Amino acid sequence: TKVRDYLLQLLKDKGAIHMTLIDPDKTSSEKAARIAVEAVEAGTSAIMVGGSIGVSESMTDEVVLAIKNSTNVPVILFPGTPSALSRHADAVWFMSVLNSQNPYFITGAQMQGAPIVKRYGLEALSLGYIILGSGGAVSLVSYTRPLPFEKPDVVAAYALAAEYMGFSFVYLEGGSGADPIPPIVVRTVRKTVSLPIIVGGGIREPETARELVMAGADIIVTGTLVEEVDNVKKRLHPIITAIEEGVTARKF
Ligand code: 1GP
């Protein structure tokens, strides 16, 4: 429970945190190490490694090792498939795509991955994963019917189900590079569940991050953002400052 305790303690101390997502399909191990170092300098709390398409175990290994050799923050796998697990990571988001229409993505891949997670000694962080909006590539890959932004009550009902089913975290995913989830959706989920809420997908501006945190997001994930720029620290720092401002401005 090392990584889980670390995250929960950070959330208690700071109110909300940032995580950086690195996709091994889009990022070489050299670039991953550089992104991780700069992201930590900017104040990110953990590095997530994964992607929907084209990620093998050896690619994950290389990226995870490069990050582990250059930073001290936890590396948490965000696997698109059980074959993208790395024994070198600290933990894995052990996720179930709650609104997939294909049972493989709800319990099948998890059944295949569980013995590997155990063999590799990875800490499993149970995560109810809900895909919203246009959903991006991940909704296509996981046979998911994304929940419309206009139906926050349905999103909240899924999140509450995640809480009652015993998941430790819930992830509201808008899809990588898609439109960010509107704050009102996060607000509705926040009123309904006590689980830590992770929000990601299309977050590019500090103002977006600030509003999402004000609405109740606990963990803000950005991926695409850091792939695009040379100066990762300069791009991420305002986002992380905005997260801190969002905590201060919270009204709940
Ligand atoms: C995708 O939520 C993450 O799983 C991050 O999305 O790449 O748009 O930051 P972006």
Description:
The protein is an alpha/beta fold and 252 residues long. The chain has one domain: TIM Barrel (Alpha-Beta Barrel). 46% of the residues lie in helices and 17% in strands. It contains ten helices and eight strands. The protein has helices at 2-14, 29-42, 57-70, 108-120, 136-141, 152-164, 183-192, 206-215, 224-228, 232-248; strands spanning 17-22, 46-49, 75-77, 91-97, 123-131, 169-173, 197-200, 219-222. An eight-stranded parallel β-barrel has the order 1-2-3-4-5-6-7-8, surrounded by eight helices. β7 (197-200), α8 and β8 (219-222) form a beta-alpha-beta unit. Bound molecules: SN-glycerol-1-phosphate (1GP). SN-glycerol-1-phosphate binds next to β8 and α9. Mg(2+) binds at residues 23, 52. InterPro entries: GGGP/HepGP_synthase_I (IPR039074), GGGP/HepGP_synthase_sf (IPR038597), GGGP_HepGP_synthase (IPR008205), GGGP_synth (IPR010946). Pathway: Membrane lipid metabolism; glycerophospholipid metabolism. Its EC number is 2.5.1.41. It is an enzyme of class 2 (transferase).
